[in-house]
Write a structure and sequence with these properties.
62% helix, 311 residues, single chain, five-stranded mixed beta sheet, elongated, alpha/beta
């Protein structure tokens, strides 16, 4: 009983730490933004930003408004402060992160006459039916659970590694189409192309399900446990979908972008609000996980294959 109590205490403490730590220590640090305008004005604005929020922004200096806007549209910057007209104008992309957009507007008020009400332009606004982006933020966990549960059920109900792998992709397609329909057509949380949004979800579910299947094929029940920890405990907690990866403490946000939930969340934002721009890295990450899952399934099948008689 004492060992059980100690184990449960450790497990609860780890779960609380992993899920509460990113939220409790969430802050703006090294968030890429653009400063556009004459060099003296940009230098002055940069000094003010460093004083107001030390280490908060990774500033990209550009000469004109068009370049700053393109950086935001390409998801290379979360927003911009345009000083080219003589007074600050704030450029945001609330669909990239409402938290960063709000922080940028509040911080920009310290520059020049922005405190009197700087004009704000939103280049990638969230849908009118979900102005807080709650649907997309809340959708990460069900998608991760769907991929994990798909692998578990396929292991229990389907024989043969190849059939399980095909089943995982079949569910990824149907699940992706259904999830995109719910988020876009019913809840109104997504904009953009429905097929592109569904494709992003398909890749996410396929990456999770195939990886867990591969781990189970190689390691048995232990593999499912490892997959659950990687997807649910680490991947979901460090995905940064609710805020932004750059707002998570330490390198946890960067780690989350290398796991399927984080990469899938970024890709879905890109397809829904930025015409797919900025999602290339996420696609690579998801495809690599799918290929890893396939390789693990193959390795597990070869290990289980009986050896023929020696000649």
């Amino acid at each position: 009983m004492a060992r059980a109590i100690a184990l449960l205490t450790v497990i609860t403490s780890v779960l609380l730490t992993v899920f509460a730590w990113p939220s409790a220590r969430s802050s703006v640090h090294d968030v890429p933004i653009a400063l556009a305008g004459p060099a003296p004005a940009v230098a002055q604005a940069r000094t003010v930003l460093d004083q107001r929020l030390p280490g908060g922004f990774d500033v990209i200096e550009v000469a004109d408004t068009a370049t700053a806007e393109q950086l935001v549209r390409d998801r290379r910057a979360f927003g911009a402060i345009d000083l080219s007209s003589g007074f600050p104008q704030v450029i945001i992309a609330s669909a990239a992160s409402t938290a960063v957009a709000q922080t940028l507007q509040a911080t920009a008020a310290s520059i020049g006459r922005a405190g009197t009400g700087a004009p704000v332009r939103d280049l990638a606004a969230l849908p009118a039916d979900d102005l807080r982006g709650a649907g997309l933020a809340a959708g990460t966990l069900p998608l991760a659970m769907g991929g994990l549960l798909a692998a578990v059920l396929l292991v229990k109900l389907v024989r043969g590694g190849l059939r399980r792998f095909v089943g995982a992709f079949g569910f990824a397609v149907t699940g992706g189409l259904a999830a995109a329909a719910i988020l876009q057509c019913w809840l109104g949380s997504l904009s953009g192309s429905y097929p592109a949004n569904a494709g992003a979800i398909v890749l996410t579910i396929a990456a999770i399900a195939s990886t867990v299947l591969g781990l189970e094929s190689l390691l048995g029940s232990l593999g499912i446990g490892i997959g659950a920890i990687a997807v649910m405990l680490i991947g979901n907690a460090f995905s940064g979908t609710a805020t932004a990866p750059e707002m998570l403490p330490g390198r946890s946000g960067a780690l989350g972008q290398l796991l399927p939930p984080g990469a899938g969340g970024r890709l879905l934002r890109s397809t829904a609000f930025f015409d797919g721009r900025g999602g290339e890295h996420a696609v690579i990450v998801l495809v690599v996980w799918i290929m890893l899952g396939a390789a693990l399934c193959l390795a597990g099948a070869l290990r289980k294959r009986p050896l023929g008689p020696l000649k």
